[in-house]
Write a structure and sequence with these properties.
Layout: H1 2-13, H2 22-32, E1 38-41, E2 47-51, E3 60-66, E4 71-77, E5 83-88, E6 100-103, E7 108-114, H3 117-121, E8 135-138, H4 144-150, E9 156-159, E10 164-165, E11 169-172, H5 175-189, E12 196-202, H6 210-219, E13 223-231, E14 253-255, H7 265-278, E15 283-285, H8 294-297, E16 306-313, E17 321-324, H9 325-340, H10 344-347
Parallel strand pairs: 3-12, 3-13, 13-16, 14-15
Antiparallel strand pairs: 1-2, 2-12, 4-5, 4-9, 6-7, 6-9, 7-8, 10-11, 11-17, 14-16
Helix pairs in contact: 1-5, 5-9, 7-9
């Protein structure tokens, strides 16, 4: 587990908003290239690795984790040198005022501020949550020309958060899905699997599962597994009868159904039986929430049986998330064990079903 946490720290500190994953891709490539049989980057930016199996199975299995994180993109400049921006991926505007960000490949520091206070006063109350259009990134530029030079339109920005850890937890940005990337790196470092393994670090998941669909069409896998950092909303609620989507400390979360995909029952049963056999904790993610790369993977060719297994993270899509090391460790163990016992029978429905 210590290696996975080291990978997570490096990847969490890297910058890679959707569509600008270059830095993350370089880090991952350096971590895996000595442990796989091949590495390449496809036309959309996915990092595709492959590792031949031991020969006891003819399956082709795709394991995916997305490199991109939510963040910001510069879309314009004001006369006084501020950067107008749009969010990339789902970030609530209410958390943004006063946050520090890092802009562009040189990590230029900036602060998100209210750019037009008079517009707020025109509303019913200045206590209302500002919209993104009310905000701008201040990088200290003196005028429009300097702002354009420092951060041209299309420049991306990320939360200025550094990774930290306690005895039990990890804290940092972009655990959705650098946690998945770190765990996939560890899987690629492990001994060979019975089947040919394709470890795919995908792009643009946060804006539409785009990289996963491209990769799956190319690889034509027999099965897919998506590794994800998922929402844990296990904090106190007004309605005590409402179950959390997932909870920290209860093991990895297996998706039964979300907005992009429904897991095949046989694959779901396989992962839960392996968890129980190995004595590993697990939980089910509450159905109907969000979507993952599984929604893109399963559409390829004649269809791909796919499952999402995630590590619960509080405060995803914000400046800092928190996860439990216990969950991270159990997650890696479950995925490894379930993959090593995966057979064609698990993937093929019987005519009687």
């Amino acid at each position: 587990m210590n290696d996975t946490i080291t990978y997570l720290e490096t990847l969490s500190n890297a910058h890679g908003v959707s569509g600008a994953e270059t830095q993350v891709r370089r880090v991952i490539r350096s971590l895996v290239q000595e442990h796989v049989d091949g590495v390449e980057v496809d036309a959309v930016g996915n990092l595709i690795t492959w590792k031949s199996g031991t020969g006891s199975s003819r399956l082709r299995v795709l394991v995916a984790a997305h490199m991109d994180e939510v963040g910001f993109m510069v879309v314009g400049h004001t006369n006084d040198g501020a950067l107008r921006f749009e969010t990339v991926g789902g970030i609530p505007a209410r958390i943004l005022p006063g946050l520090t960000v890092l802009v562009g490949p040189d990590a230029l520091p900036g602060v998100i501020g209210i750019r037009a206070i008079h517009r707020l006063k025109e509303r019913k109350s200045t206590n209302q949550v500002p919209q993104v259009s009310d905000l701008a990134i201040d990088v200290g530029a003196r005028d429009r020309e300097e702002a354009q030079r420092l951060a041209p339109v299309g420049t991306t920005a990320v939360f200025a958060t550094r990774f930290r850890q306690t005895d039990a937890s990890c804290i940092g940005k972009a655990f959705d899905d650098r946690a998945g990337c770190a765990t996939l790196v560890s899987l690629l470092h492990a001994p060979r699997f019975p089947f040919d393994l394709f470890g795919v670090f995908t792009v643009q998941e946060e804006v539409g599962l785009r990289g996963a669909q491209v990769a799956s069409y190319r690889i034509k896998p027999d099965a897919g597994v998506t590794l994800e950092g998922t929402l844990a909303d296990d904090l106190p609620k007004e309605d005590s009868d409402v179950s959390p989507t997932t909870a920290l400390g209860q093991g990895p979360a297996i998706t039964v159904m979300d907005r992009s995909y429904i897991t095949p029952p046989r694959l779901l049963q396989h992962f839960t039986q392996v968890a129980e056999r190995e004595g590993l904790p697990y939980q089910f993610k509450q159905p109907g929430i969000g979507g993952t790369d599984s929604g893109g993977i399963h559409r390829a060719g004649k269809g791909v049986p796919t499952i999402t297994v995630a590590v619960p993270c509080r405060y995803i899509h914000s400046p800092a998330s928190i996860l439990r090391k216990h969950d991270l460790n159990a997650w890696g163990q479950l995925v490894d064990a379930a993959l090593r016992s995966l057979t064609p029978d698990v993937l093929t429905p019987q005519l009687s079903e």
